[in-house]
Amino acid sequence: MQRTITEGPDYFHKVVDCQWACPAHTPVPEYIRLIADGRYSDAYMVNWRSNVFPGILGRTCDRPCEPACRRGRVEDEPVAICRLKRVAADNKSDITAFLPQIPMQQNGKTVALVGAGPAALTVARDLAPLGYHVVVFDGDAKAGGMIRRQIPRFRLPEEVIDEEVCYITGLGIDMRLGQRIDSLKALLEDETYDAVFVGTGAPRGRDLDLPGRKEAAANIHIGIDWLSSVAFEHVDRIGRRVIVLGGGNTAMDCCRTSRRLGGEDVKVIVRSGFDEMKASPWEKEDALHEDIPILNFLVPKEFTHVGGKLTGVIFEKVVAQFDERGRRKLVASGEPDQHFECDDVLVAVGQENAFPWIERDLGVDFDEWGMPKVDEVTFQSTLPKVFFGGDSAFGPKNIIWAVAQGHDAAISIDKFCQDQDVHDRPPPGTSMVSQKMGIHEWSYDNDISNDLRHRVPLRGKDESLKNVKLEVELGFDLQLGLAEAQRCLNCDVQTVFAEPICIECDACVDICPVDAITFTANGDEDDLRLRLSAPALNLTQDLYVSGDLKTGRVMVKDEDVCLHCGLCAERCPTGAWDMQQFTLEMTHAGEKPCAR
């Protein structure tokens, strides 16, 4: 293998698995260290720069960072990265002085944002400090989009939404709420706007066209519409017996909301197996905790009704079969159909994009599924001045994806408005700084002792199930937050090897607690991975390979198992190993990257 090229942003970024996995590339270890140091406002601002909504995401993020967490490789569960974000949000002081300053004189460019959800608000936050006049249109009376409409208040209190949305709207944004855009053509004909960003989400829930659907329509509700009606207090009750159809996070929100609005017998019924459900594991766990059964491998066939009143749903029992390629197919089990009685049904089987307001003769091309054709890097549509982001660009995902896409779209809009190439993407800024303070002392806590994940305290069911607005999760207190923060392995503090001063004593090999380091003859990667002290079987993470040493051997370190404990650097008699903090700053709109 060739010597590993560690220069540039990507190699060590990929070793910080949590940050690499985060769509917005939030510097997770950095803000966790700040929490451990009691610097909650600083931790909040590190988050705010990257993910824009720390308090909201600290309660609702889909946590792509946590499966990647290195702690999960040495213990059963990763660091509670998401809930530590909430610790920073809950304990910060007034951070308004740290928010961007809006220039007294604007740059003469105006950008229209259609929708006031997380993607559009991110674009607004990035462009307003650059002097853009940002105009946001939304049909709702309050900004927030799906954050406000579809996430129940017992998961995300309204005051948290208000606070973090206001941090953005307070940046001089021209908010035109209650003004729905019904025609993109009309908007484009207004020559005021130099660019348009579409962030309208995926506002339409899928329906089920089954026998009895029309006859029993009064008690069959589309899940996301029903959640919106609850959020805006148009609905405050539901029948005693409720069936929720679907296995995603929306279905989990529907069933848990139903329990709080009078549903005593609430069931979730899914066509797939439990492990195949799209809902996050913790969302399913929360539903089961609230005594909501989840029934699997049942496909709805018919809504039953008497005199126009819904009486139940008939299901066909299915089983999963796999062909020789491992592809799954659901087939009838041959068992008799099952009938479940109910008073209301909530249909949560997926969401769709809807663009009836975008005329098809404008130059915005759509694919066969009715989705706009959008460049995956620039988020520019086939009509150059129109950009998309969030769910409206590539379909329903989590808030953190909308934020990441909003950042990228803002870069493109800024470049477009300044007559620059939108494909010229600015690289992030990086730095590497030694953490050595003495022979056996480092500027970070490198304890690698075992410590099981701490559980987030919950409000008792007797209290929480009586109030749809009462937050269930209480969050970590300061003591638990500190204890959980201490579980972080500081993966951004990198082991850096200097082969010219290595004397090949193998002391680092002897002391490494996980056999991550090997000195051996070089070879092809497939061969080399099998000749290490511990075979490196995770092909998704690179090997760190030195240049040739004096004996002709090379140093090979398996980044997959390294705990960043620094024992190799402490033991090395020549200082060939050093622990250096890797910092990555994603470049946002209008910024020029700088290596520090």
TrEMBL record:
GO terms of molecular function: iron-sulfur cluster binding; metal ion binding; oxidoreductase activity
Q: Which residues form the 4Fe-4S ferredoxin-type domain?
A: 492-522, 552-582
Entry keyword set: Iron, Iron-sulfur, Metal-binding
Q: Which Gene3D superfamilies match?
A: 3.30.70.20, Alpha-helical ferredoxin (1.10.1060.10), FAD/NAD(P)-binding domain (3.50.50.60)
- Name the chain's protein: FAD-dependent oxidoreductase
Q: Which PROSITE patterns match?
A: 4FE4S_FER_1 (PS00198), 4FE4S_FER_2 (PS51379)
| A Pfam short name | Pyr_redox_2
Q: Which PANTHER family match?
A: GLUTAMATE SYNTHASE [NADPH] SMALL CHAIN, GLUTAMATE SYNTHASE [NADPH] SMALL CHAIN-RELATED
